[in-house]
Amino acid sequence: MFAPYQDLLSALAEEVGLEASSLISSQEIVIDDLPISLKLEGEGEQAQLCLCCLLGIPSEGRWALAIRTMLQANHLWTGTSGATLGMLENHTVSLSVRRLLSELDADRLAVLLAKTADIGLAWQDFITQDQTIAVLPEFFHDAPHVPV
What we know:
The structure is a single chain. The chain is of the alpha+beta class. The chain has four helices and five strands; from the N terminus they run ααβββαββα. A hairpin with a 2-residue loop joins β1 and β2. It is elongated, with a radius of gyration of 16 Å. The N and C termini lie far apart (45 Å).
């Protein structure tokens, strides 16, 4: 494991009161029942930390609304605060965030994880709502080019 990444996870664990060896081993943190995986990609100055959480599968009746809204939210990241919504082959919706490892310290990573959890939980609520309900996440209402 890349030493700066391991050091960052250790510092994060200390910052948020987790056992460092457990976080380093699992590379996953759970915030408000939402698991967020952490993954290092690349090496050296180009190394990036990727965060990913799985949000659920839209019901058949909600499929078109969910996909259309996710595409609109991804447009210039207005409805995701810089994260990207995607879909796995099994139709599970994911939320991903990528940052240069060199730009992060434990405090910044803790804030990024908290923000990712907030955004992920809001989208999870939207994606898994009853098909007749179309309540968008609160931060999505301010997106100027997205019809609500």
